[in-house]
Amino acid sequence: MSATATLWLLVVASGLYHGLNPGMGWPLALSAGLWERRGSAVFAALVPLAAGHLAAMTLVLLPFAALAVVMDWSREIRVGAGLLVVAFGLWRLVDRRHPRFLARIPPARIALWSFLVALAHGAGLMLVPVVLGLCTADPQAGPAAAAAGNVAAALGVAVLHSLVMIAAGGALAYAVYRWLGLKALSRTWFDLDAVWGASLVVSGAFGVWSGWH
Amino acid sequence: MLETMRPDPTFYASPRIAMEAPPEKVAYTLMLSPDFSQPDGLAVIDVDPASAQYGRIVHTVTMPNRGDEFHHFGWNACSSALSPMSGHAFLERRYLIIPGIRSSRIYIVDTKPDPRQAKIVKIIEPEEVFAKTGYSRPHTVHCGPEGIYVSTLGGAGPDGTQGPPGVFIMDCETFEVRGRWEIDRGPQKLHYDFWWNLPRDYMVTSEWGLPPQFENGIVPEDLLANRYGHQVHFWDLRARRNVQTIDLGANHQMALEVRPAHDPVKEYGFLGVVVDTTNLEGSIWTWWREGGRFHIAKTATIPPEAADADLLPPLLKGFGAVPPLVTDIDLSMDDRFLYVSCWGTGELRQYDVSDPMKPRHSGSVRIGGIARRAPHPDGRPFTGGPQMVEISRDGRRVYFTNSLYSTWDRQFYVDGVLPGAAVMARAGENGGLELDPDFHVEFPAGYAAHQVRLEGGDCSTDSFCYPSA
């Protein structure tokens, strides 16, 4: 498989991972379905969840994609970004406390919650090394073309990741709503905090490694 | 270790799931020394019918200080941790947060690994509470979105009257006192109980009186002048803002316990009022939200009972009657039955509140009482009357104690409310109430009994974020 195909596969895999993680919001969709006693309410709640997640992804990924235009510093940028992601992951591993401001968001503001939770947990950062890997596709193109290409790559990653994320989370929310029952919520809710922190470290390490090669 | 890989099995996503959980085996009950001659404590009562020690105190945690006056307490974490927005799904229901209402000291008691060997792990001294919150006399404890919420009855200063009392927040992992909860309290100046609807994002608070109005006993002049609390306040929970205050009418003195429907889909709840100064009635009120506004209506009244003046304390002799004194209410997990403690007349009432606007008196037990002095069915005497009441999650066992508050105990029951007792009534599946003759816990010498908390949660601790549907 080509390096590019592998990177896009990673985008899909991370989408599945974020989607199935209860911390990224599928229980909110489940809750919406139960409140309104309609399966369609599960799907309606997925829209603000997806919008918030997509916005957070875009906000984090775009600056890195723009930075990648500076081709001469490609290695430094990749290594630097990788180290940043490793550091964030280590911080998440050491300090497992959740930011208190997340608890102050009113329950009706699902999109805002989804946006802030993705930022606070580093969901966007996790994809930075992948985006940087996709950003250097055509070194022969001029700066404008490279910038456009990089922005397109970042947007593509954000959109594909968010689509997969919301499809996975939505499928799980609907399965619990329709077939598995509310008791499955606590049965399926695993503490992913440590795994999440480790994922950031691995992702950052991949960025550092790809910078050197 | 505070965190686990899976949510605590005693966190329940909905009230219905809580009802289906295994029955409680242990009850934690506060014991207090009404003359402050001994330290207060926590009694662990065996409530497992299969145990050889069923119905007995199997362990006590004795505090290192005297004069704390334990009143209400709560868990560090509960079902609210399963909120779909929560970052706290991996806390444990493990620590009991026990405030001293008189000392303003707070004890953190660990109930694991052995619930029968609970022990103190942290003490928050009053100076820390004063310095970080400006409040005093911590009272009710609930676990919620921002950690542990603790209501207070006093403001700053030696008598707690410098500034209004309110709610403060503690970190649910480190037990650090964070600070005040209120950002805009509106007209709220008094405090007693609080509870909320988490997904609907509102809080409800009630009023008792300021410390000089309760610490040395009830102040008859204040009561007759209607100077105790008679308002209920509604708040935006996340914005920490008072959105509405409703006055019940000044004659409705002491609006105490707040009991919202457990199923968060239902936007109503109940409130108990101790006494109406025009006719000595106790009353039950139902509040509800409609069109974004809160409303409240008196939905049940309990009349006083005539009594021979010789049987009455000085405070009541002139009336020739015993007021019911509604000092606690509790709502079953299925939102069907409301239990009402009539501490004065010695009656625990059960109301069918299937229609919350029309409570129907569906059962009663009589025990204790100022004039009636009804014994327990096992033949032993029972001092005081039904007071703090706690219902098992399945709704079948209703536990209660007999003491209200040290100085008030002596005013209404001149010989005091000793020995402390915890008893239990059995509720029928479709209503009806009967005292269990085999369950009658007598507290150690000199100790009164106050609030009961059940292992794995009960009907006045947990808040739910998902509907029962």
What this model shows, in words?
The complex is a heterodimer of chains A (213) and B (469). With 213 residues, chain A is mainly alpha-helical. Chain A contains 9 helices and no strands. In chain A, α3 packs across α5 and α4 packs antiparallel against α9. The model of chain A has no long low-confidence stretch (mean pLDDT 90). The mean pLDDT of chain B is 96. Chain B is globular. Chain B is mainly β and 469 residues long. At the A-B interface, α2 and α8 of A face loops of B.
Provide keyphrases for this structure.
heterodimer; A: 213 residues; mainly alpha; 77% helix; elongated; B: 469 residues; mainly beta; 4-stranded antiparallel sheet; 7% helix
Largest interface, with counts of residues having CB < 8 Å to the other chain, equals: A-B, 32 and 34 residues
The assigned structural class of chain A equals mainly alpha
What gyration radius of chain B follows from the Cα positions, in whole Å? Answer: 20 Å
Helix content of chain A: over 70%
How many beta strands in the DSSP annotation of chain A? 0
Shape of chain B: globular
* Secondary structure: number of strands of chain B: 30
Please give the count of helices of chain B.
6
**Parts with pLDDT < 50 across at least 5 consecutive residues of chain A:** none
For the biggest sheet of chain A, the summary is: none
Task: Tell me the overall shape of chain A.
Answer: elongated
Strand content of chain B: 35-45%
Average pLDDT number of chain A: 90
Radius of gyration of chain A, in angstroms, nearest whole number: 18 Å
Largest sheet of chain B: 4 strands, antiparallel
Q: Can you tell me the residue ranges of chain B where pLDDT is under 50 for at least 5 consecutive residues? A: none
Quaternary state of this entry equals heterodimer
The CA-CA distance between the termini of chain A, in Å, is 18 Å
